[in-house]
Amino acid sequence: MPRPHRLVPLLAWALALPAFAASPDDAKGQWLTAEKDAVIEFKACADKPGALCGHIVWDKDAGQPNDTCGVQIARLERYENEAWRDGWVFDPRDGKKYKGALRVKSGDLHIRAYIGTEILGQTEQLRRVTALPASPVCKR
User: What is the pTM of this model?
Assistant: First the structure.
């Protein structure tokens, strides 16, 4: 039988777990793509404050013909089980919309795009940034 003094740290750790649970606001902010070629800002949708929308706010190709500044890449309707769900994500590389899920894990944002069921999808991991790169500047 475990000694009581050994259970105290374990019990304290277990009680602290809920404090680290993800919240819907964890995804809000600016995130740099894995390729470091764009920054996406996630915030409440202007037309539906309970939903989460993502727009490209910095693109390494700003001002070029393939500029994606201002493109909306996500709209997720609800937050459940530590993930934003029930919506879509747009991949500007292939010009297609997919079902989507978005969650924050270990400080990184994971965007999952899929057709049919989430388990068959593909995930992109983004890192939070506190400021946009100085140039080029999106004009939209």
Answer: 0.82
